User: What shape does this take?
Amino acid sequence: MRYTQYKSRNQYVLFNQNVLNAFCDSIFTIKPERLTPVCSDEQGRGTVVFFEHEERELVLKRYHRGGLIGRFVSSTYFFRSLKKARMWQEFELLAQMRDMGLPVPRPVAARCTKTSPCTYQGEVIVERICNAQTLAELLCNEALAEKTWEALGLVIRRFHQHQVDHADLNACNILINATGQIYLIDFDKSHIRARHDHGWCQSNLSRLRRSLQKWKNRQPTFHFEAKHWRALERGYQGAQVSPVRSTHAVPVASR
Assistant: This one.
């Protein structure tokens, strides 16, 4: 992937030359009325913008703090270095994973804006996974075949085989498109581990299971049962001896 970095006043920008023919800062200034709530384990905290540019469907994510500190400081972070800025790290991690053949959105651009000598705000833009729903949205409406759960386990294991530790693997950060392909999204604060450690792999899986159980507890209808988790584990365990494939998406059983 070819990408360019430049600085303009208090802004640092990184953009993917393989996606954009030309770049202009206005791509980051989408009208507020086009904001769309994010499917979230925290019931909608945060927003993204879906928009079209150069005939491409794109997604703009603005970084917002969560938890207790987010009540007081919504979108400002302490600046240590550009390489440690959250949008910079997510852009570069997505580029690495794409090179590995993992099913993630293609990074398009990132912007880090210094708001003071010690603080920054920022955004990242990725290509949209079209005709897709989150795992949480799907399960609110229908039960998925066990083969689909097995395929999901396989996809997660592929990321783990590449040492990718997803910091927030939950039912809203898994997309399944109309043809049954599975993608992982939202890699804020995620990273590639220096070496394999089964502890963090299990932590990823436990977080996902808690997320699914949380959705089941709060939704009147949510199609998640113990047998579905067992199917996911079968797919995950079966992938341990499978070669890592270089496709960008993994087909699953039709629903």
